[in-house]
Amino acid sequence: MSIFDNGPDGGPEVSELPEVPPEAPTGLPADELSEPEPEPGQDEDDGGLVFTSLDSFVTDYIGQILCRRLNRATAIWCPEWWRHPEALVRLSAMWRAFEYLRVDAALGMSTFWLHHADPHMRVLMDPEFGPFALCDPREGHAVRELEPLPMAPSPPEIWDHPAYRLDASDVAGGDAGVESDQPPSAPTGYTKDLGMAADY
Q: What's the DSSP call for residue 8?
């Protein structure tokens, strides 16, 4: 049946056309251009997050956006990135920054990439000094892992000074019992005792 029917005057009358779903946009992801729409079935309770898990953020966004020539000379990546504690911490910080900054339509994404993603990814993908240095993008996660930094026990008396302590009011911006906005100066004498440079 034609979409044209004869009208009262004998001429064609255009009936309503069926709605055609818009094609998926190509090129840059939507959240590079504007604030993304919530995913289908997304609760309002999740705060309108684009990615509700770190795994989704890394797999569906970072892993798709960043295309690099991977080798041991320029950049490295571990397919099992979630096995590396430093990668988990850095990528989680990136994810939280992304969800916070994406609502700023003017500078949010620029701030995210320049001040969060770029520095973190530069460290993560460093083939010599990054946490993936022993891994291979094709052969996978290395059986031998990098060892944590060596630590020696510290003298307990160092931590008695207020410069080396932090409580919840300091983090939350509370000013109870605080006489000045300036942090306390570091104690003197300990650097020489620890064999460190006195002016460090």
A: T
CA distance 146 to 135: 10
Buried b (16+ CB within 10 A) or exposed e, 131-151: bbeebbbeeebeeeeeeeeee
Instruction: Encode pLDDT of 54-113 as tens digits.
Output: 999 999 999 999 999 999 899 999 999 999 999 999 999 999 999 999 999 999 999 999
Q: What is the pLDDT of residues 17-30, one digit of tens each?
A: 455 455 544 444 54
Residues 6+ apart with CB under 8 A from 132: 76, 77, 78, 81, 84, 87, 124, 125
Q: Transcribe 11-61 into DSSP letters.
A: SEEEPPPPPPPPPPP-SS-HHHHSPPPPPTT--GGGTT-S-SSHHHHIIII
Give pTM, 2 decimals. Answer: 0.60
DSSP 73: T
Q: Alpha-carbon distance 176 to 173, whole Å?
A: 9
